[in-house]
Design brief:
CATH topology of the largest domain: BirA Bifunctional Protein, domain 2
Number of strands: 13
Radius of gyration: 18 Å
Number of helices: 5
Helix content: 25-40%
Distance between the termini: 37 Å
Number of domains: 2
Shape: globular
Bound molecules: biotin
């Protein structure tokens, strides 16, 4: 076991990712250490957004990894592995989810989970990684229409601790595959990708275009086919406009 061996359980914290960063600086953690909080007072999302979550209702956790000086080329595989573990966790509770590139988890067009990865890199090598997970579990009212939770999808309550355990088991499975057969991680990630090989609308440089997702490359960039031409995009360059 690796993920979930060593767990910090907190009632309240600003952000589990911040707590993880402090543990790394003070060398008080190990590979796979998890931080699980009941409440965050300053939860952080992607693109400097705030991650809001009602206290005690959702899974708010961060994992720390020391990937043994992994080259930056391997970073997307960690992102893909986490997405796959989240899909598998939801699947365990009979929820069919998809990954909206790069790592949002969606169910029936609504976001159920967000991920915030923060890496400490020096000389092209990864010294430490923080994998932050915000999975909506028992919350049923959201500020935004396009959010959902395990409870909204299944009409029942969940033990957050149980969801966390299932996620740890799944992460422990996928990390082994990452070490032994990274190509399988990419293959499975593509299978779980929302809108793969499907014509859909995207906003690129302020213009709406019809494109089709073909793949992702070793840097995690999205390969889109637009008007018969394939182009690579970074996270902030593409907006999905159908959701
Ligand atoms: C997103 O914007 O989709 C990413 C959201 C990530 C939220 C999680 S909650 C646990 C961890 N701590 C944080 O402050 N953020 C991540």
């Amino acid at each position: 076991m690796f993920f979930g061996n060593d767990i910090f359980r907190l009632d309240r914290v600003d952000s589990t990712n911040n707590f993880a960063a402090n543990l790394i600086s003070s060398q008080l953690c190990q590979n796979g250490t998890a931080i699980l909080a009941e409440e965050q007072t300053a939860g952080r999302g992607q693109r400097d957004q705030i991650w809001e979550s009602e206290p005690n209702r959702n899974l708010l956790c961060s994992y720390i990894l020391f990937p043994d000086n992994v080259s930056v080329d391997m970073l997307p595989y960690y992102n893909w592995m986490l997405s796959l573990a989240l899909l598998e966790t939801l699947n365990f509770f009979n929820i069919d989810a998809k990954i909206k590139w790069p790592n949002d988890v969606f169910v029936e067009g609504k976001k159920i989970c967000g991920v915030l990865l923060e890496n400490q890199i020096s000389d092209g090598l990864t010294k430490s990684m923080i994998l932050g997970v915000g999975l909506n579990v028992n919350q049923i009212e959201f500020k935004y229409d396009n959010a959902t939770s395990l409870k909204l999808q299944t009409q029942r309550d969940f033990e957050i601790e149980e969801v966390f355990k299932v996620l740890n088991v799944s992460l422990n499975k996928w990390i082994v595959l990452l070490f032994t057969h990274p190509e399988v991680i990419k293959e499975q990630y593509l299978k779980g990708l929302y809108l793969l090989n499907t014509n859909a609308k995207f906003k690129i440089e302020g213009r709406v275009v019809i494109g089709s997702i073909k793949s992702v490359n070793h840097l995690g960039q999205l390969l889109l086919s637009i008007d018969g031409e394939e182009k690579l995009f970074n996270h902030k360059e593409v907006e999905f406009i159908h959701l």
